[in-house]
Design a protein that fits this description.
alpha+beta; eleven-stranded mixed sheet; 13 strands; 28% strand
């Protein structure tokens, strides 16, 4: 084609279009850099990992007695009948049964309760946290009995299960953790958000970053009360900085996210108790989602004895007759079974090896700077 001066504008347009198209198409191919992905999740359920048999074979002595049963066994029928029938009057006597009327949850060594019945079974959920299959002491652990995983792997560390596995109220069919999950779902308190960044491939990626945050607001639920996938959540922050926000390295192997061992802070709310949970040497394993479907995951690590007893004490101080365990028996057994992080002065271990299971759905996580941009633009979050 021959152009004359009348066709000059058209010629310039065609040259510019071809030139621009070349760089739009060829530029990214030449660079060869794939866009990094970010994945967000909101945790919907959180439970202690309990291996439970049909007839409670893991607890050959049966379930541990509760606070109320222990109190009843400590007094005569005449004494029990002499107390007023008013609920809160009787509850005060149940709690204040220590020596000289001391509250047994405030001073758990003030009264000798029957020993806690603990798990004697062979199998448990969890992982080998200390790298020592025979349970002997290491520089970071005390001597303890190990479990075997359900697939036959030895050296499983899970003293939290040994401690609480014979407490009926703590089992999957018990009310304690079911109540806690229900309280979080209805209030939005203690909401855990997980964010995976620097993702090249959701099937296999040898280097990703995993952040843990506390969500604010309420869960986004459908008409049946289930958490909706791909809803947006803000994170709890002050002066632009997250109150939570530990970042851990990890990788994705065959569609499963695995984090390196690290100390991580996680929020918690349940049974009217708030906690800043600290997990020592925590590792997370989580399936990555397909089409927004719910995913399952697990967390293993060391959980502070004092931290755990604070939760127990708070529950029994509020409802001493409901939870099927007692403060003194839990306090004594928890310190006896502790297997992690010896105190440098006493040598006594201060943490319990633990395992937890959780469910989550995909979510958008809005950071403070993103929320400011959205608010300034008048747009809604994704």
């Amino acid at each position: 084609m021959v152009f004359n001066s009348r066709h000059l504008p058209l010629q310039r347009f065609l040259v510019s279009f071809i030139f621009a198209s070349f760089f739009v198409v060829a530029g990214p191919i030449q660079a060869g850099v794939a866009e990094k992905k970010t994945l967000g999740f909101v945790v919907t359920d959180w439970n202690t990992a309990m291996y439970e048999t049909l007839f409670m074979d893991e607890c050959p002595e049966g379930p541990t007695p509760g606070n109320y049963e222990i109190w009843e066994a400590s007094v005569t029928p005449e004494v029990r009948r002499s107390y007023p029938l008013m609920l809160f009057t009787k509850l005060r006597h149940i709690n204040n049964r220590g020596r000289n009327g001391v509250n047994v949850c405030d001073d758990p060594v003030s009264f000798d309760d029957p020993p806690l019945k603990i798990v004697e079974g062979k199998y448990a959920y969890g992982i080998d946290l200390d790298g020592n299959a025979d349970g002997t002491a290491t520089p970071k652990t005390c001597e303890h009995k190990n479990f075997t995983s359900l697939n036959g792997a030895p050296g499983i560390d899970n003293q939290m299960y040994r401690l609480m596995g014979c407490v009926e109220a703590w089992k999957s069919y018990g009310h304690i953790e079911n109540n806690a999950n229900s309280h979080r779902l209805s209030s939005g308190l203690g909401m855990i958000l997980i964010e995976v960044t620097n993702v090249d491939d959701t099937a296999n990626d040898d280097s990703v970053q995993v952040g843990f945050y506390r969500g604010i607001g309420s869960y986004n639920l459908d008409s049946s009360g289930k958490v909706l996938p791909y809803a947006s959540y803000g994170i709890d922050h002050e002066d632009g900085l997250p109150r939570y926000g530990d970042i851990v390295s990890g990788k994705i192997v065959d569609g499963v996210l695995k984090t390196d061992s690290a100390d991580v802070h996680l929020p918690f709310f349940g049974n009217y108790q708030y906690m800043n949970q600290v997990f020592r040497d925590m590792q997370l394993h989580m399936e990555l989602p397909l089409d927004g479907k719910p995913v399952t995951g697990s967390v293993a690590g060391y959980y502070g004895v004092d931290q755990f007893y604070s939760y127990v004490r708070g529950m029994l101080s509020t409802f001493p007759n409901r939870h099927k365990f007692s403060c003194p028996s839990i306090y004594v057994a928890a310190h006896q079974l502790a297997d992690g992080h010896p105190d440098p002065e006493t040598g006594d271990c201060t943490t319990l090896s633990s395992a937890f299971k959780f469910d989550a759905v995909a979510a958008f996580i809005n950071h403070p700077e993103q929320e400011e941009r959205i608010a300034g633009s008048g747009q809604t979050s994704p």
